[in-house]
Amino acid sequence: MNSIKKNRLFIASCLALITTAMTFAIRARLETVFGPEGVGLTLEQIGYAFTPAFWGFTLAMIIGGPLVDTLGIKKITWIAFVTHIIGIVLTLTANSMTSLFVATLFVGIGNGMVEAALNPMIASIYKEEKTKMLNRFHVWFPGGIVIGSLVGWLVMDVMGMSWQVMVASLFVPTLAYGILFIGQQFPTTERVQLGISYSNMLKSIGKPLFLFMVFCMFLTAASELGTTQRIESLLKSSVSAPLLVLAFINGIMALGRAFAGNVVHKLKPSGMLLYSAILTFAGLWLLTISTGGMTFVAAAVFALGVTFFWPTMLGFVAEYLPETGALGLSIMGGAGMLSVSIVLPIMGNLMDNANATEALKTMSILPAILILCFTGLSIYMKKISK
Predict the structure, then answer these.
(1) What's the pTM value of the predicted model, to 2 decimals?
(2) Residue 103 pLDDT exceeds 60
(3) What is the 3-state secondary structure (H, E, C) of 298-358?
(4) Is 241 helix (H, G, I), strand (E, B) or coil?
(5) For range 215-243, the mean pLDDT
(6) What is the rounded distance in angstroms from the CA atom of residue 358 to the CA atom of residue 177?
(7) How far is residue 345's CA from residue 146's CA, in Å, rounded to a whole number?
(8) Where do the H-state alpha helices sit in 2-72?
(9) Is the pLDDT of residue 236 over 70?
(10) What residue ranges define each of the domains in the chain, with the CATH number in brackets?
(11) Half-sphere exposure at residue 49, Cβ-oriented, CA atoms within 13 angstroms
(12) Phi-psi group of 349: left, alpha or beta (phi > 0 → left; psi -120 to 50 → alpha; rest → beta)
């Protein structure tokens, strides 16, 4: 481990996650390019065209998770780099639902491989600070969305340049993380270091607590990413520049995750998740009744809710179920992205046939269920810690 350059690997990992996150923001802006007033796709069709970003992500993580142990973190990371490059090039040439679907699939696979390789790498090189460092790593998911949102707004709305220029900006962080990873030594996964057998890892993912967390991951990820991915359509009647609301939400999330260590110490992961669910529910309902400047207030409440969902879910599994290894983290991330691929077309259908308010009200059901789930989890964790 001494020959491993932790700081360089961590910075490169953050840049890879920035690439992943920027694709989410830029994809949200592309909704108007390919929508009814652009290429002519319905919002439901765009929902289906965007789904590979999520189930492709899921597929990559489920396949990449076990392969991280056999092929190694390094090879999975380079697969992420190559598929990112291919996905960006294909997006630049997309001109229909089918071509957008294929391009989004490659981007999704690249994003999934980033998470499949780098979550276990962070857990491996920072064994004593897993939840803290995973939160710090995942600062750059909202941070990257802020960057992507501002790039999209500046390129298209301020400077009036083409959407291809916006998409081409993805090459910058992609090439940067590729350069930083060149020639570096990567650690083995924690499961390998602990000597836990592959068969024991497979058995551990059948534990009731792990299955419960997978179920909760479906709901936490859909609450966060399902909402933010369709921000343009959800808020276009409430504010003039929905991408700025997206940047605002993710700016709050980035700051929250940067200081996650103090919150983790005070609340513990289960407490963080319960408070997150309560605020997410409140934020979604406030968004249904807010317009103008009040939309930003509602968005702030929502942002405070979803800030700790993704990294804390991963951190919980890494801390309390370490025997699940890289596969466990991959299943968690994959479940989260799969859930988003399910809700995107549903939200599109609601907006096509009803309105954005109905879509937001429907989404609020998810954190309502989570409030009950995380209340039970908090009680359970206090009981077993005695």
Answers:
(1) 0.78
(2) yes
(3) HHHHHHHHHCCHHHHHHHHHHHHCHHHHHHHHHHHHHHHHHHHHHHHHHHHHHHHHCCHHH
(4) coil
(5) 86
(6) 40
(7) 24
(8) 6-34, 43-50, 52-71
(9) yes
(10) 6-385 (1.20.1250.20)
(11) 25
(12) alpha
